[in-house]
Structures are given as C-alpha cells and as structure tokens.
Design a protein that fits this description.
eight-stranded mixed β-sheet, 10 helices, 2-enoyl-CoA Hydratase, Chain A, domain 1
C-alpha cells in the first residue's frame, strides 16, 4: 500500500509540474508576442506609425490616424524636473530630429506646442533645450507655442522664452527668474571638533578645495561660486528681456524671483494669454501654421512603454501643496547650485 501511495503522489506531482511549466511557457510566449507586436509599426490607411509615436487630441478633442500627406503639429511635454527622467536635452533633441525623419520628412511638421508643467532644473539642460527650440523654429520656419498647465518656474520659464507665444491655464504659476546656491554650503568643522574627529582632503590646483565643508572657510572662498551664479542669472535675465521685450530693470528690480499666478503674470508681460485651454492654443497654432483642413497632432514616447505605469513623484503644487522651483548647475566640487523655494 505504501508503494501505491508513493506512486500516486509522484504521478500527481509530475502532472502538476508538467501543467505548471506548460502554462508558464505559454505565458512567456504570449508576453514575447505582445512585446514584439508593440514594437512593430502599425498601419492605418496610408500612414505608418512607429511604436514611439502617439496620436494626441486635436483642437476638437479627437484622436485620428490620418494619411501620410496630412500636416502635423508636434507636441512636446516638458513635465517634471529638467535634466532628469525624460526631460533631458538629449531626449528633446531626439524628438526634434525624429520629427523630420521617416514618416515625418518633407516638412510635414508645421508647428510645435510645448506643454509645460515644470519646477525647473539643471541650467545646462534648460539652456540646451532653449537653444534647440530656437534653432528648430528658425531653421524650419514653423511657429512654436507654449502652453503652461500647472507650474512653469525657473528652467521651465527659461525654455518657454524660446517660443513665439506663451499661453497659460487660469490656475498656473509662472516666474522664478533667479538663481541661488542649493543645497546650501554647510561647514562641519565645529561639529567634528566637538566629537574629536578630523579630516584631510588632498587636492591640487588653486581654489580646488574652496568651500570644503570639512575645513575652516577663508574670506573670499565663495567668490568663484557667486560669479557662476551671477553669470547664469544675467544670461537668464537677458533671455527673458530679449524674448519677452521686457526692460532688464523691471526683471531684476520688480519681478525678481517671484512666482506669479497666471493673471498677474499676464499683466507683467511674462505670458501672452491667461485662462486658456489646450484646445484654444491648438486652434491658434493651426492658424499660425497656415493649416487648412485636416491635420494630425503627435507626440513621441521618450522612455520605455511600461515605465508610464510606474508612479512618479508629483511636482505640481496643485497636487503636492508645495511650491518648489529649481534652476541648478553642477559645480566643480559636485555641489549643485540651484534656485529652490518651498513655502
């Protein structure tokens, strides 16, 4: 009887594992087929769209895949911290290049819409994206509009200044034309002395060890960092002044690093229209682009498709209840300098 029971048990286990691995194999095959299908170019009518391209609602709120000869408006989302995640200068450059290749060649893109909800970010990426947008609209002679839907501060506004017109929703916040060292430099010398600890930093080159948190600071050590901050701030002011036709004195003495509600930002000349919807901005962009009849609004995915399902930390003050805007640049001591304001 014992042998019979063992035989039955072994048969049951064998059947279980055969079924389990069979189902597992089928599941893996289905996943592989799904991933392959996702990456294949899908065709509708005369047009073929790669997996990177997404169809977005037009001014009538409709998403339609149209023929290959239909004019296109390109939407680029600047949502999140600039210089990290998908909002890097490399990603934006890739989008702009792709908008002139393959199915979009022959100047199909007639206009660009930047949808911005950003607290700012790295000065290098902000400046490069600004110059990429300026170069694109000048090279291809297309109108570029910005639509602020949330927060457009520091680096976000820096980029917005590259556009022909800036629109904003009624609840948006705009501004923060300023730069500050962040996180702040911290000196730990007194703390180390109290606990009986000491440090030794080896360096070569004049000023390489300036603002070292583990040694006593000498007068004037901060001058190099202050000069960098002044340089980037002056460039920021120049860009805002030239693109928005605002006197530099007004920017430095009146606006400063204030963050303004959209209606006030309109009065100060930071934006062109307030209390707008995306559909209105698109309708105006269609007219500016000289498009008559059908057109397509498209965007490009800049990260793996499955990542869009992962939760990201919200940056909009309307969600978090915190206002945080940042304009940063790396220093040679690996301390980022940025503008950040948290009430």
């Amino acid at each position: 009887m014992k042998g019979i029971h063992e035989s039955v048990l072994m048969s049951a286990l064998r059947a279980f594992f055969v079924t389990f691995f069979g189902v597992l194999g089928i599941s893996i095959a289905l996943i592989a087929i799904g991933l392959t299908y996702y990456g294949i170019v899908s065709a509708t009518g005369e047009e073929a769209f790669s997996s990177k391209v997404k169809i977005l609602p037009d001014a009538e709120g409709k998403r339609k895949k149209l023929g290959i000869n239909v004019p296109v408006l390109l939407q680029i989302d600047i949502d999140g911290k600039i210089g990290s995640g998908k909002i890097t200068s490399a990603n934006i450059e890739e989008i702009l290049l792709a908008s002139r290749e393959d199915a979009f060649q022959d100047s199909r893109v007639k206009g660009v819409l930047l949808v911005i909800d950003s607290p700012g970010g790295g000065v290098n990426d902000s400046d490069i994206i600004y110059r990429l947008v300026m170069q694109y609209k000048e090279r291809y002679k297309v109108p570029v509009f910005a639509y602020i839907d949330g927060l457009c501060a520091s680096g976000g506004y820096y980029i917005a200044c590259a556009t022909d017109k800036i629109y904003a929703s009624g609840g948006s916040l705009i501004g923060s034309i300023g730069v500050i060292s962040w996180p702040p430099f911290v000196n730990l010398v007194d703390t180390l002395e109290k606990i009986g600890a000491s440090t030794l930093t080896l360096s070569a080159g004049k000023g390489k060890d300036e603002m070292n948190p583990f040694k006593t600071w000498h007068p004037g050590e901060q001058d190099q960092y202050q000069s960098l901050i002044n340089f980037y701030y002056q460039r920021f002011v120049d860009i805002v002044s030239s693109n928005r036709s605002l006197p530099k004195e007004n920017i430095t003495h009146e606006l400063g690093a204030k963050v303004l509600p959209a209606p006030e930002a309109l009065q100060m000349g930071l934006i062109d229209k307030s209390d707008c919807f995306r559909t209105q901005v698109l309708a105006d962009l269609v007219k500016a682009a000289g498009i008559e009849g059908k057109y397509q609004v498209v965007g490009f995915e800049t990260k793996s498709w499955w990542k869009k399902y992962l939760k990201e930390e919200p940056t909009s003050p309307l969600i978090t209840g915190k206002l945080k805007h940042e304009f940063s640049f790396p220093s040679h001591s690996d301390n980022p300098c940025s503008y950040i304001f948290i009430p």
